[in-house]
Amino acid sequence: MGNKQPSQPQDGPDSAQAEVLSTAADGRLEIKTDDLGPEEQKIFRKFADKIKNETHGQSAAEMLQTLHEEVGQHVDEEQWMGEAYVRIGIVGVSGAGKSTFINSLRELMAKDAGGAAVGNTETTSDTAEYRHPKNEHVILVDFPGALFKVEGGRWKSVAFNLKEYTKKFGKKMRECNVFLVFTSDRVHDNAVWIAAKAREMGKKVLFVRSKFDQDVTNKQRDDEAYFAGPEGQAEGEERLLQFEREDYVTKLETMGFGRVAPGDVFIISGILDNIQRGQWGAPALKDAILKQLNIQQKMLFITTCQDFSPTMARAKARIYKSRAWKVALGVASGGAIPYGGTAVNAGIMAATIILFKKGFGLDENSVTKLATLTGKNVVELQHIVDERLSLANKITRFFQGDIDWQSLKEALTAVAGGGIFATAIAVDATLDMVVPFVGGLVTAPLSFGLAWRALCLVIEQQEQSALALYERAFS
Ligand SMILES: Nc1nc2c(ncn2[C@@H]2O[C@H](COP(=O)(O)OP(=O)(O)OP(=O)(O)O)[C@@H](O)[C@H]2O)c(=O)[nH]1
Ligand SMILES: [Mg+2]
């Protein structure tokens, strides 16, 4: 391989190639169309055309440079962030807990500055947009649940008319990626009509019933035996949750919304403590939101999902892994590629590992927060994290110049077996044909294939570490 050049212009991409833009023969590395954001897909296609038409005489290193220029041109941070937004539409009956949920997602309490007013019956006649403090491009859009007019200097609600509502809010509804419909003890007509409209627009609608913590407390008071099964409290809560979900599905059907899949109904508690713990249906709700987003939006949204739930840890691992090719490209080309909205210049690999560690809630701040939340010993929790991150630590130290390549190689072999190098070279060799820019880089300390594989291993360790951490913290 080395500086091998593509010998023949390859045929135009057939449909299979369009699906999988780059793949290794052993099936271990795939960059699927789904792994690329819309802009990235364009870049890859353009690049593939370019190397087909223009660059037969170029060396791999020159081609790498070409790709780098292409990528550098298109994903500078401004442009990248300029195009990727996540908008979550929220609508529902007054008092259902929308503001509380919005604040908790933004890690705010009602009393914090910038928080949405809670328990405030003041009528709003327009949408309110709440940006996530961790990522300005994640926006929660609170839609009014009714129509209002000014009468005698005051807002007065008027008979609900969907046509009028759509005229007023249709454009903003269309901008949303997904809709959350909140109800409390009764399924309110207006919200359901608005939801039906959103569905007509092709939007996914998820139904949320909040305040489950209250339902549990009430049930405990009214019917103690309900929670006395062999599995105790957890079993009773699960039974109550299933009951409420079925009840909700039936209500929606009665109201003419049609049969909603129980999987689209989420029973949650919106108060901050419960959201951070990942209690009841909240993690599944976030997971369902993720499903409606493209990969770049997923990266944005996942940075705002700072809860301690296995569901989110698994979702993060999935998403981070599907972005690993991009980091590997940055490592292999020695370049700087803005990544998930964060410009990573020096030591892209080390920086990414830190970014992901934080994402999983494994950094010192998050572990301390978890210890406080659960009343566990912070040193003990920190130990659970540290003992599972051997590879990440080695790689970080390698990039800091604390250990040499031989030590890192040993660490990689210890985790993945000696086969990792053969696989990495095989990946590079295959890529050499499919995407020729990596040729010539296998001799670099961390070639594309190896960087990609190593990062996936680190993500796996971080995921395991997070799962072990949460289990201990909540046991
Ligand atoms: N226990 C409990 N109380 C909640 C929960 N969510 C909201 N509340 C309370 O319910 C009341 C109404 O909550 P809000 O978040 O203001 O409801 P909203 O849907 O924003 O209401 P409007 O802004 O009037 O449309 C407040 O007193 C909240 O503290 C919850 O999950 N659990
Ligand atoms: Mg509100």
UniProtKB/TrEMBL annotation:
InterPro entries in alphabetical order: G_IRG_dom (IPR030385), Immunity-related_GTPase-like (IPR007743), P-loop_NTPase (IPR027417)
Stated name of the protein: IRGC protein
Entry GO MF terms: GTP binding
Positions with biased composition (Polar residues): 1-10
Domain IRG-type G: from-to ranges: 84-292
Top-rank taxon: Eukaryota
Organism of this sequence: Branchiostoma lanceolatum
Transmembrane residue ranges: none
Cellular component, GO annotation: membrane
Annotated spans, Disordered: 1-35
Entry's family note: Belongs to the TRAFAC class dynamin-like GTPase superfamily. IRG family.
UniProt xrefs under Gene3D superfamilies: P-loop containing nucleotide triphosphate hydrolases (3.40.50.300)
Pfam families found in the cross-reference section: IIGP (PF05049)
